[in-house]
Design a protein that fits this description.
The structure is a single chain. The protein is of the alpha/beta class. It folds into six domains: 240 residues, Spore Coat Polysaccharide Biosynthesis Protein SpsA, Chain A (Alpha-Beta Complex); 104 residues, no CATH class; 97 residues, Immunoglobulins (Immunoglobulin-like, Sandwich), CATH 2.60.40.10; 111 residues, no CATH class; 176 residues, Rossmann fold (3-Layer(aba) Sandwich), CATH 3.40.50.11820; 176 residues, CDP-glycerol glycerophosphotransferase, C-terminal domain (Rossmann fold), CATH 3.40.50. The chain contains 32 helices and 47 strands. Strands 1, 2, 3, 4, 5, 6, 7, 8, 9 and 10 form a ten-stranded mixed β-sheet that branches. Strands 35-34-33-36-37-38-39 form a seven-stranded parallel β-sheet, with helices on both faces. It has a six-stranded antiparallel β-sheet with strand order 24-23-28-32-31-30, with no helix packed on it. β41 and β42 form a beta hairpin. α7 packs antiparallel against α12. It is globular, with a radius of gyration of 30 Å. The N and C termini lie far apart (75 Å).
Length: 1004
């Protein structure tokens, strides 16, 4: 391998940025001029491979590339198979000469090679059309290699949805190597990252190395990349993600756990080829470390799903890659070494049990002090596993120190606060010795305390950290920390870097001296004539402060109801930008304070301005993973008697007091005023019924109530650790008409292994005492899909009583008034369901863009208003004329009554909407794909959707222009629909549910 490969940190650069006006001129001038101009700017070719399954995401992928600050690039779009018509349709309206569609190829490898052959740029990047190009990633990659002369630049890889453990660890290891400049041989993590999407190659070097992607290449493990890397001289590592990898081409549901063992033969072939290519180079040691620490343990995590042949293959691969030697602790963690050792012993059951424990623990390792090292003590570990296998290396248990707060100078010294931890070690205050030295070797006076904020910073459920206050000489540039934990000695050097980034151009007219909570208000001490604005995360002003009035009430109005500000991020800025913050306040940041209604966390934002987070006012011993772990343990050990007069309610995970639990609550309180009721809420922005007591989720009181309440009434699954106590009753109301796949069918479609299915059962059906279903015919599905054999209330949903009540007309008028709707305006309610494949994390998903609400509003004119109701996992939509976002409106029944027509996709809301008599339109262009996905349907969708099926926004507009005609056309179908599915909705469902609840409570 020529030269001495180096890894160099690559940050953002402005050297390759093009002003937007010039960029527009170059684009309009055409591709030849772009290439000519780009010869001095680092012209890049981006090869985008598009398979048919990627077509729904192609437009957004191209849009992200077009918006990249690095204008001097071409996009070579290569279809695979029969994707050409869809590809051409996606670019038909684009006037961007940088995008060229090349002839279709039979495989993605052929497509990538075709694009590389025709690339005109000095630099080459590969992309899948389904992946997400991070903002300005191309600018950063090109800027790095142009500035350094390196052969390759690589960045991190984020993952959509729940990440695959092995890929997450590969990316984490790569990012950890950013910020260094050292020989590649001492950076073994680089050899483990052999994917395509996060790299920028020199085109000439790619061709000179004879790089041709072949059948053995895989997108995330390409031996061809190893071939290129073998010839490379230097590599730049960016400390940010440049791409978001979308598993399963965006069709895989969030939480799905595909069986990676199916990929074992292909991976094995590719890995052998990589091993051959890197053998004899200084990359080889790093590659073998990756295989043993990341790749093989990733496959071993699927041991419980392995058949006999796959288990034999795993054992053979472990034997082949370890060759009978103990893996190097410097490269392979104790977790991986233990899995490999157990596999080598043929202990299949032990491997599966340890993998299950690792799934629960995450990155935590339970440890004990064993002489001069820490040793893992997993509960599932057999006693005969030798200590040298379970021994954690120094690299796994480093001393980590971070500057928390840099105080103002007081004479020759200034106070500095640090957070300090030894990874995978618990630091009780009396069990260690800490010494801090300055650059000259002089001992620094310190005060050490066990601080809840430090443990939260550590992010561990098992191990505590400490806070260290040191009086540091003003001119000290760094400190060295020495910590002894028994015979374990760790060191760390820390630079005295201010932990906050100050605004580049603060507004000098407005000076902020202090901010704090005073009761329920935020007090900001301000000087100057300007005004300080408090903005929420959507940029809406929710409060102001100036020199004359510095008290901000942390309240806003939501659809006519005043509420406390909800949990979220807020900014304090002036109309001209960030305010000037005094040195005294900076020295006191970050600031944490708990008030009666909020917990405040204040710091300086990364781009300037005061950044606030307002959350639920949980106490220090209720915040963070460590505190929650111990509260869960206390819940499990709580053996206090049940209070049969206490009933706990929860709806949508504490996000609002609504749905069937609310209807049952009101009926229960009216009938049994002697009972005490409480509602679980995520914060004080949530309104609870009069007379009920709100209790904050995750608080100590919440755990106490869950353990002692005589009855629980909920509409979603509870936490996985919750167990129904003897004599305790849990009523599961669910939160929608059963129509989509659920229970075992859904779990199997998501490819959950048996242990994950058992986990879902434990937090779901195993906790149910009684369930609600809308009709006896629907109860059958719950019994079949969940194996539930208990009692059911099966004659209507209490949530729907309001839709058929006598005051429905008055509720319609009241709601329309709150929404600002005139009597002559037609309200079109658009309420799509959430798509599991668009989820980005639990309880958060992108909203489907099948309906262009703004375009529909323009086409319909002032006589129509589009009400956009996102799923509870969606973020509110952007405002536009004729569109009102009602995602945060607390009661969906009010919206159904206010609407004149409802536009849906596969949402079960159609069963509720039918009760109002409003016509429905079904925007379902992806019906075939959805029906064949992980949710599918319990019964044919076509038989349970009484309205026209349309394909796009234009067809929606056509249908809703004349609502009266639409209603007349579908009235008889809706009547038949109600008689089939909603015949028990007579307004008395809540009464029947309470009858059943009280009966079960009496019998418990």
């Amino acid at each position: 391998m020529p030269g001495r490969p180096l890894v160099r940190r690559a940050g953002r650069t402005g050297a390759r940025l093009v002003p937007p006006r010039l960029r527009g001129r170059l684009i309009r001038a055409g591709a030849p001029l772009l290439r000519l101009a780009g010869t001095q700017q680092g012209f890049a070719s981006v090869v985008v491979v598009c398979e048919s399954v990627d077509l729904p995401r192609l437009t957004s992928a191209l849009g992200a590339l077009r918006q990249d600050r690095h204008a001097f690039h071409e996009v070579l779009l290569v279809p695979v198979g029969d994707a050409t018509p869809g590809v051409r349709a996606a670019v038909a309206d684009s006037a961007d000469p940088r995008v060229r569609v090349l002839p279709a190829q039979p495989t993605w490898q052929d497509a990538a090679n075709t694009g590389a052959d025709q690339a005109a740029g000095r630099f080459l990047r590969f992309a899948r059309a389904c992946d997400v190009h991070r903002t300005d990633a191309l600018a950063d990659l090109v800027g790095a290699v142009s500035a350094s002369g390196s052969d390759l630049a690589t960045g991190g890889v984020d993952q959509r949805g729940r990440p695959a453990v092995w890929l997450a660890r590969t990316s984490q290891a790569l990012r950890a190597s950013a910020g260094t400049a050292r020989p590649l041989a001492r950076t073994p993590t680089v050899a483990g990252d052999l994917g395509l999407s996060n790299k920028l190659f020199r085109t000439g070097a790619w061709r000179a190395a004879g790089c041709r992607l072949g059948a053995v290449d895989r997108w995330l493990l390409a031996p061809t990349v190893a071939r290129y890397l073998r010839e490379a001289h230097t590599i730049d590592v960016l400390d940010r993600a440049v791409v978001e990898h979308v598993g399963g081409h965006g069709l895989r549901a969030f939480g799905a756990t595909p069986n990676w063992l199916r990929d074992l033969p292909a991976w094995s072939t590719a890995a052998e080829e990589v091993d051959r290519l890197l053998h004899g180079t200084q990359l080889h040691r790093g590659w073998r470390g990756h295989v043993l620490d990341v790749a093989l343990p990733g496959f071993l995590r699927d041991t419980e799903r392995a058949d006999d042949t796959q288990w034999a293959d795993l054992c053979g691969l472990v034997a082949r890659w370890t060759a009978g030697d103990d893996p190097d602790p410097a490269l392979v963690r104790a977790e991986s070494r233990t899995l490999l050792w157990l596999t080598g012993q043929g202990s299949r059951q032990a491997v599966a049990m340890l993998c299950e424990e690792l799934h629960v623990l995450g990155d935590d390792v339970p440890t004990v002090l064993a002489g001069d090292h820490l040793s893992a003590r997993w509960a599932s570990l057999p006693d005969d596993v030798p200590d040298h296998v379970r021994r954690l290396s120094e690299a796994e248990t480093p001393l980590v120190v971070a500057v928390r707060r840099l105080g103002e100078a007081d004479g020759p010294c200034r106070p500095v606060e640090y957070f300090c931890r030894v990874v995978q070690a618990d630091l009780p205050v009396t069990a260690y010795d800490l010494t801090v030295l300055d650059a000259a070797g002089s001992r620094i006076r310190t005060q050490v305390s066990e601080a809840a904020a430090a443990t939260r910073w550590a992010g561990s459920a098992l191990h505590r950290a400490v806070a260290v206050r040191a009086d540091v000489p003003v001119h000290s540039g760094s400190l060295r920390f020495h910590l002894r934990l028994g015979d374990v000695h760790r060191e760390a050097e820390v630079e005295l870097v201010e932990p906050h980034r100050r605004p580049a151009n603060p507004d000098p007219r407005v000076v902020v001296h202090d901010l704090f909570l005073d009761g329920t208000d935020l007090v900001v001490t301000v000087d100057g004539p300007g005004r300080l604005r408090l903005l929420d995360d959507r940029g809406r002003e929710v409060g102001t402060a100036d020199a004359s009035s510095s008290r901000i009430q942390l309240r806003d109005e939501l659809f006519g109801r005043e509420r406390w500000l909800p949990t979220g991020h807020y900014r304090l800025v002036t109309p001209r930008g960030p305010a000037t913050v005094t040195d005294g306040l900076v020295a006191r940041l970050p600031r944490e304070q708990v008030g009666p209604r909020h917990r405040l966390h204040a710091t300086l934002g990364p781009s300037g301005g005061l950044l606030l987070h307002l959350g639920a006012p949980l106490a220090d011993d209720e915040q963070g993973r460590y505190a929650q772990h111990h509260l869960v343990s206390g819940y499990r050990d709580d053996d206090a008697p049940l209070d049969k007069t206490l009933v706990y309610f929860e709806s949508y995970g504490g996000r609002t007091a609504t749905d069937s639990p609310r209807a049952i609550h009101d009926e229960l309180v009216a009938r049994r005023p002697d009972l005490t009721t409480c509602w679980g809420v995520i914060d004080h922005a949530q309104e609870v019924p009069e007379g009920a007591t709100p209790v904050l989720l995750r608080s100590r009181e919440w755990y106490r109530l869950l353990a002692r309440a005589g009855a629980l009434v909920v509409n979603t699954d509870m936490e996985p650790w919750l167990r129904r106590r003897p004599g305790q009753v849990l009523m599961q109301t669910f939160h929608g008409y059963p129509s989509k796949g659920m229970g075992l069918g859904q779990w199997q479609a998501a490819e959950l292994p048996p242990s994950r299915i058992a986990e879902h059962r434990a937090r779901g059906v195993d906790t149910w005492s009684i369930i609600l279903t809308p009709a006896p015919e629907m109860t059958r599905h719950y019994r079949e899909q969940y194996g539930y054999a208990g009692p059911a209330v099966e004659h209507g949903y209490p949530r729907n009583d309001a839709l058929v009540s006598q005051d429905s007309a008055s509720r319609r008028r009241r709601t329309r008034a709150l929404l600002g709707l005139r009597d002559d305006q037609t309200a079109v309610l658009y309420a799509p369901t959430w798509r599991e494949n668009l989820a980005v994390r639990p309880r958060r998903a992108e909203m489907t863009e099948l309906l262009d609400a703004a375009a529909a509003a323009r086409a319909l004119g002032d006589g129509h208003v589009i009400l956009v109701r996102g799923h509870r996992f969606h973020r509110p939509a952007a405002a536009s004329p004729g569109v009102v976002d009602v995602t945060e409106y607390p009661e969906v029944n009010d919206l159904l009554l206010a609407a004149d027509v409802v536009v849906l996709d596969y949402s079960s809301l159609r069963f509720d909407a039918a009760l109002t008599g409003s016509p429905m339109v079904f925007l379902v262009p992806d019906l075939a794909d959805y029906a064949g996905g992980t949710r599918s349907f319990l019964f044919p969708f076509e038989d349970s959707a009484p309205g026209p099926f349309v394909q796009d926004t234009a067809e929606v507009v056509e249908q809703v222009r004349d609502v009266r005609a639409l209603r007349d056309r579908w009235a008889s179908e809706i009547e038949r629909f109600i008689s089939t599915y909603q015949k028990w909705q007579d307004g008395s469902s809540a009464e029947r549910a309470v009858d059943a609840l009280l009966k079960v409570m009496d019998q418990a």
